[in-house]
Here is the input.
Amino acid sequence: MNVLIVFCHPEPRSFNSALKDKAIETFEKSGAVVEVSDLYAEQFDPVEKAEHYTSRVNIEVFEPLSEQRHSYKTDSLPIDVQREIDRLERCDLVIFQFPLWWHQQPAILKGWLDRVFIAGGLYTSKKRYDKGYFLGKRAVCSVTSGAPNNTFTENGRAGGEIQALLHSMNYSLNYMGFTVLPPRLVAEVQGAGFTYKEPEAFVAGLHEKLEHWGQYLQNIDSVAPMRFPGWNDWDEYGVEKKI
Ligand SMILES: Cc1cc2nc3c(=O)[nH]c(=O)nc-3n(C[C@H](O)[C@H](O)[C@H](O)COP(=O)(O)OP(=O)(O)OC[C@H]3O[C@@H](n4cnc5c(N)ncnc54)[C@H](O)[C@@H]3O)c2cc1C
Here is the structure.
């Protein structure tokens, strides 16, 4: 199996980084090939803008969709976008590793979606959802939070269930054809921080969370995917059919 970890944390000694390292160790032990896309370390630019396109179809007005289509068609995609697509092409499973920031993924990852999922190339009006480009590949969001597990409920302090908070991220992955596994939340990661001494029980708890992550990954083939509607579920207006 080929695994891609899209890693979104600015600090190499962070707990998110420890989760990423645990995933590498676990998969490599089982003989899988692991690749990491380290968005901060590689300084991925999450801002879609005209300067990314060297050979423009329209130099008067910047239309992101037109430039994406054109650069795909003319084989002149921005180098960093092409690199990410190549990585996605090689993998069977992609893990998005990130901390919950303002109840969703960090902005760098939203920008990664904006730029990497190229219109007219990786999706078209006919190549979406259960006919999407990445059909047959799995994707999962591995998320950490400061808030504790029990607050991720409909009216809980964390703002909702984790699946609800990450709905748009997971829906975008489904749009691109991925089989999406339910997000995996490691909650209550926020302690005193590196600047202060952590209580021993907190650190021990984090070690345990790392072990659980390793066990989850060993059994990932038995994780049931999320259910999303597909083309047969919608009427001609894109509305879910009443059965
Ligand atoms: C802008 C912003 C918005 C936020 N919004 C939300 C929100 O909406 N909801 C929410 O719940 N939280 C929120 N948070 C909190 C955030 O989700 C947590 O701070 C984050 O998930 C913690 O993960 P980390 O990798 O950054 O941990 P770190 O702060 O890097 O690490 C936490 C602790 O883990 C320990 N550690 C690191 N590596 C290891 C290891 N290998 N083994 C054992 N211990 C280790 C260290 O002692 C460290 O102090 C927000 C934070 C920010 C900065």
